[in-house]
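Q: For a teaching session next week I want to show students how multiple molecules come together into a single three-dimensional assembly. I've collected the sequence lines for a complex. Could you give me the predicted structure tokens for the whole thing so I can convert them for display?
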Amino acid sequence: MEFPAALFPSYFGAGPPREEGGPAPVAGWGEHGQVLEGGPGRRQAQPAFVPRRGATGERWEAADAAAVPVLLPSAGSWIPSPAPQDILYRSGLCKKLRAGKSGATLDFARQLGHFFVDHPEDAFGSLGQLLHKNFHLGNSKLKRPARNSTIRMTALVEDIDRLEARRGCPRQHLASRLRWFSHLCRDWLFEVPLGLLADCLHEELMQQWSNLLFDDSLTGGALAWLPPEDGGTPVGRLVHPGGQAMNHLYFQDVVLEELPRARGSPAQFELSGRVRQVAAARVDGEDFVGVRSDYHCGVWRVPGRTGAAPSPLQVIRTDVPASCLTVSPHLPGELSVCTQSGTVYLWSVGTGLQQLRHDPQTMFFRDHSPWRWSDFTAHPRVLSCADRTGLQCLDARAPKKCHFDLFKVGEEAGCQQGERVVLPMYLGRAHPSQYLVTTQFSVYVLDERLPLVPVLKWAHMMKAPPLFAHLMPGNSGRSHQVLLGASRTQELLLLQYRGGSQSACQLAGTPQKLHSIAGCLQHLPTQLPHRQHLLQQRLGAPAAGLAATLQEDGPQKSMLVFQLSEAGDVFCQRLTHKAAQPPAPPSRDEATTAPGSSPLFEAPASSPQGLGAAALRYRRWLRALSRVCREPSRHTWHPSLSQRRLFTRRDLEGPAGPSSLQRQMRQRLRQAMQEGGRIQRWEPSAIQPPPLPQTLEPAEGPDPLSARLTAAWAGDWEQWWEERTSFSVAQRQRALRERRRRQKRARGCRSLSASFTSSLTYQSELSELSDAGPPLLSPGRPPVLSQEGSPPAGSPAVGSPPASPAPDEALLSSQSLRCRGIPKERRKTLRDYLSVWAEGPPEPPEPPGSQASQLCIPSSQSQVSSASQPRRKRPRMGF
Amino acid sequence: SSHEHKLNFRKSKEACLSYIQDALLQKQWKRAAEFLTCYVESLEKDYSREHIGPSEMIWRVGTEILWHHPQSSMKEFNCFMEQMKTLGVKRYLKVCLEHVFHLLCNGQIDEAYQNLSLAESWRFGEQTAIQDKEMKLIEAYRGLLDYYSWSKQKNILLENSEDGFSDLAVEQEMHGYFRKAAVNLKEIIKIPGVWDVFVKCYVDLLEFYGDHNEARQVLNEYAYNSKFPANPNAHVYLYQFLKRQGESKKSLISALKILHDIVPSHELMIDFNTMLQKSKKRKKRRLGLEVIFAALDYAGWKENAKAWSCLARQVKQIVISEKHLDWIKQEWNSRKDWWPAFHFSRYLAKRNWQENKSLSYEKALVAGILLGKGCKYFKYVSRQGCKAQLKRFRMLKRFVNRHNPVYLRISG
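A: Of course. Below is the structure for the complete assembly, covering every listed component.
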């Protein structure tokens, strides 16, 4: 561990930052910073100087025109997180106001309205029930006695609608009626006192808004790359979250080829919270993967050999959301955890948690952010801990006594006013005592042997603060590659630096922008507008993680950069290393663009010249995406009732009470259910079933063989033969018709259980009969009847065989009943009832396990059970 | 509509700047240059009160482009820089300094010197704090270049004196350079900061002229002034100076002791340990053990064979003499819960054996004593060593077996 013999000169001041600052678009260009005599010794005639910034670096060039998807989009549509337009007040007037003043107006009233509509039970439950008789929702005039105790709500609703229409109008006045109503009931109508509710909502809104401006829960990123073993097959592992709520953790084998390719299906773990961060480190040839969600942190061990299954080791739960989880690169199974309450723990799988520090206040000056971070340093027992104001190092053996300041937002590091720490990272793989600190303006490299004075500082000029960083150490004197990634803007920046032991730290080469996920949009074929919009939304989702790896394939070196988006997509891009050629030939990108042309005027379709295999990958990805987006998953799709339809005017204008016919029908229904019987015809007059249309084919008696045997047994076989040969056909027909009529009359009232058994026997008869020949169909019988009447039991000639699983079956399957929220004990009853009603064969007993029936519920049927369904919740923020 | 015009102008300015930025970040220097020629127009109506105005942007972007543009030349660069110097008074010194840096990196030392002299004589009203700092830096760099000229003359003079004749003019010139360099260098190193190069040069000058007291004072100030950052190099320079001066062991040790306190992982700790081990005093030898244990705590020392051999030697000495086993015990106490996993895992035994046999020998010795003969690291290495029929590994095994009771005393 050598220390550079001489460092670049710099001033060292103390105290708060003096330089006024702000985001500066080009602040990082055109500066050498300082120079230092370096290179070959002083023996030469002239000293040779090297700059702190501006030395030549390695040349990396993008191999493709855009980043390429690595994995197919996962099933289950993605629910985008709230966008600014969801919670901001939208109106022309406000926009104008906002242009003048800074600051956004949150649409508080709309969110409160959403709450009342979506959770009426929670908002008005008890009083709503008490008072519902006193609210009239119709258009009709109220009658005299009712008027004293009933309010007509229709007018109020109209007033509200009118108010809504005039939204944002400066001269809006509350309708007096509304004012009167709200004055009257503001204090008692709400289940939760309105002031309290409003406070909570406002707090939540502010929280959401600040998350939209800057979401620090993603710090560190939720993507990790576990590189293949040295000299092994080029199969690494990608650890990333997925699923609709990003609560599944996947360990996916990835083969490093020209385009990295997923191999096999991933090892998958379902977690109980959204995965915020995935951190990994390799110790003694094994990878340790730490996973952070808000209230849980877990650690997995992944053995080094390829194909070995990851095993979960331990999980901890925190009361306050955790803000950081890092894995020790020194000792197996050691991690550090920070929570938003300002507590730092050293977590070792063997011995549990050790609290190192608890301080809700920030370290160097007061800052409101509860964000804390911690990482390891060159000494396995010394941990750094950070908040927005700086970094301190603590000795875990005596955390109260032994600590020193590593970085301070202040004059010491030449910070600007308002600068805050965004992401600290231990750069141990590049140099054991180096540290990276990013702020919203700059990136610093620190050496813990010289605390407080950054050995490198550079203004990164990124539009959003870099929340993700990845280091690729350059071995044996080569420069180290550092990738910085921002979340909201998906920016990716590649930096290079070298030095730290024999020579002082230098930034090498110029920073380079890499492709973002959304950048591929211009290369994709044009889509239908709504598809384009979906695609835009999907690809433009904020980035959620970053990982990269260097791949050496003989002389050819390349870098693979993976980027994860909040939608769960993992994209990858390859950069190839070019040997340094001092007179650099114009890069490919520059050559393709004519002089004077700007990216604005490029034809978007003409650019993807490098998309060969990539284009194929894209096509597959797009196809899968459209499949995912088109069919909403069965489990998430619920039939919903539009609320507006509950109170259409036509509904309300109808006769106030049920008509006599309806009353009669209801009574019959109730009676039938009590008796366990069934209703044959809905028409009240249909107590006697109408005569069935005449069947044309002659009904047959018992089959000739059994008749003959019976006759033989009785001893009058001769007579039978006589009859058989001489009995007039007409006579026989008459007798048969008579018998048939008798049978029909007897069928008038049959119990439910009887119909059950009969239909069962009917089934078995049918299967027996199928040997004898196809049963005859009744062509003249209208098919409607099969729903209204029941099949003539025991007469196989009439019913039609259940050819294919009818839609009703899907309706009745326990799966579908369950997913409609019907309690188990009622499922059987309902199934029985519906099966009779729909005349289907009875459902076999509930299948063991969960055989997901893949049948769709026909839309006509969905109305039936929608009443028993919980209404689908509107995706909306806040609660 | 003039307002609208202004707004549109600002918008197109911003758009242009973003194209430039985009081109720069993709290393498309030609394209960036073309956009920059358009952006120059923004200077005309510069109403912005932003942190970085258009003139500074043009300077920064233009410099960056000229560094990398395939067709740019040094002449063009100088020309551009001269223009930029006139563009903003506040930035004059900064631009001068950057210009000088570029000249220095391209080996144009004389031009750089001229520029520095010019900048030094520049006066414009009252200087801000930042300008003051920049001026000090300009003077310091000029002092540095004077120092290089001095050292060149000195070398000539030394060569000449070897040949047997002296040149008075050269000597005069050399003294002139010394004076100029000393004045400027002395100034900057008074201000808190990291001034490694300047301090080194100044001390070299002073030592040449025999002013050892001043040199010592400068180095002491640089190392021990609490307003300065805790720069390990300051202590290293002082230590090297003391060594050159032939100072006593005691003062060398005290200098290194302070370095050990601030940077226990410094590479000089090996020298420090050797120095302490040789000492007759028990306390010093004790400190030596502490120093080498502390150094090996750091990840950067993990595979340092030299450090391990230092530790192995001292531990062996203690075990053989059977005195001061409590020293080892005390050091081991705070490490026994994590050193085994950090240094003595089976994985590391395998790897060290493959990569560096002598390192694994030293480590196995230490492991065998600290963790007993049952330790994974020791077992693996000694077995491999015996298999490979290496004599010293067999002796190692015998040694550890013989002294196994020590382990019980240390861990107990």
